[in-house]
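Much of our argument rests on the idea that a fold can be written as discrete symbols. The record that follows shows the chain in one-letter code together with its fold in token form.
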Amino acid sequence: MGLPLQNVRGTIDLLEGGATVPFISRYRKEATGSLDEVKIENILDRLLELKELQRRKKYIIETIEGQGNLTAVLSSKISSCWDAAVIEDLYLPYKPKRRTRAEVAREKGLEPLAKIVMAQSDSALDVARFLSETVESEDDAKQGAKDIIAQWVNEDSRVRASLRVSFEKTASIICSVIKGKESDAQKYRNYFSVREPLRRCSSHRLLAMRRGQQEGFLRVKIEPAPESLSRIERYFLKGSGEKSQLVKEAIADAYDRLLCPSIENEFAALTKRAADLQAIEVFATNLRGLLLASPLGARAMMAIDPGIRTGCKVVILDAQGALLHYDTIFPHSSRDKMVYAEMQVLKMLDRYQVKVIAIGSGTAGRETREFIEELQPGEDIEIYMVNEDGASVYSASEVARREFPNHDVTVRGAVSIGRRLMDPLSELVKIDPKSIGVGQYQHDVDQSLLRAKLKSVTESCVNLVGVNLNTAGRELLTHVSGIGPALADSIVKFRNEHGPFNSRRELLKVPRLGAKAYEQCAGFLRIPGADNPLDNSAVHPERYDLVKRMASDLQTDLNTLLRDKETRTRIDLSKYQDDTTGMDTLIDILAELERPGRDPRPRLKQFSFDKSISSIEDLQAGMILPGRVANVTDFGCFVDLGIKIKGLVHVSRLSDKRVKNPGKVVKVQQEVRVKVLDVDLERGRISLSMQGVEQP
């Protein structure tokens, strides 16, 4: 992995000891050489792969040994190999098989004939002596011998390695539409006739082809270059006589019937996994952008879930997100209902004195914002459009039912919109990430890999921001390092029974929360107003004595050290550096002393779409419009223009320079300006460009 051995060893020791990735990256920099979360995650992933491979090797050796076929040489080859494909090649001749054509031929006594043919001597081939009740003709005998030779060729590790190289370097992926399915498969028409080098096939194209195959519209095949067969023949052919001709025919049979399908399946799985990992990485990057989106903060507000036929659900939330009032208005219906809706909104704004209005960005979102703005509720009223993807999923979830057992899904959805504006992270952790709408083929990739990655990203974001121990719900606490669902329940229950925590040390009173869990979680939990101000910072309790020493050396107290910048400038960090406390850790501590409990997320800015655009019909080629990046994929990004349909900026149109990775140019939630290139009303598609457009 290109990392110093001692850093990898230190990381593995911590992982094996039960430490989490966020904890290791933040609080054990001395042991890892200050490796970041990505490198630690990579070490963990590789460690798990190697352990699984070790278990597989152990099973294979035990299986071959049980057959009485294990030799010292074979055992050494398997034990010393760390390539999964090569290990399976070594195991293949001994792997229990179903009854193959070669096995049938052996049962008929034709293996000696196969050995004679394989030797390819110049002597005449005497087949007659192998005839029997089960082998009625010489052609049957020759075919049986060829079946056995084909199996030998298929199980030869040199052959499989050679063909694997051919697939890797020369294979093409071939995709075609299944005859008769053309009209039903129109969404896959770009893949009706495709032939391209496998190694150049992008992950999103491969996943699209595989999805079409899964749905029964496309046929997908991987083929090596034709010369691959002739390379295999060189391993076995020794002449041009009858025996060599039989061997050549057996090789061709092995190639078509056994080798190519086997290696094709292998490469189909490998390329699918690589495409899955790429798609999952795109999803993870987008999710991180959403989870770390700017929070408004703790402010009372009105939140509106827009609707036309069923009306707009309006809720009033206090600064902690608690529901104070709810109502339903119909501003997009008759004139009478609109007037009544105006009266209701103004009445609620006056009664609860809220200065913030959050409006969901879904159906009727733009119309609802215009309705509110026409009311002229006051210059000091802030209005925000909130991405409501996933709000409906939350409103019908068990979490929502537990939070609001006496309210229906419409009220819960409006509450979620408001809370998402206050703190996107706290609200989005309640929703399955796949429902948030920022993925690329998320339903086609390996779901276990996807869940693991998204869980890792969520935990990383939660621990980066930190969690208020006295207000966080079960879902948010679950993602804190070292806690998990069971301990989260215990913490909430303890808090409900005993009141707010006054210090981090009180966590040790929580049932089943022991010293190890405390070590892992304490630094990521915050207690505003605690007696010890460090309890509201990212300074770990194990470093409290060190900070007190710093204050004592400067002949001051802890509060002054935190409050007075001039005092902090006199801290000589090198004085506190030793084998267990490195300079990177000391720099982190000093940064926390300067801004205890700082939120790493950017400040929220108000953003407005072009008010003249309310639907796709209003768009015209050449328009320059403000937008917000809603999703980033390998082939570009989708931009929200404030209407129901999102426009696509293809990767070739993202910048004046050539772009390989769209994620390096734009991020989810980023404000951009785009030029309308084309509007396809029939298909509901908008083509956009950022080339030559000055960005905000």
About this structure: Residues 616-689 form a domain with the OB fold (Dihydrolipoamide Acetyltransferase, E2P) fold (CATH 2.40.50.140).
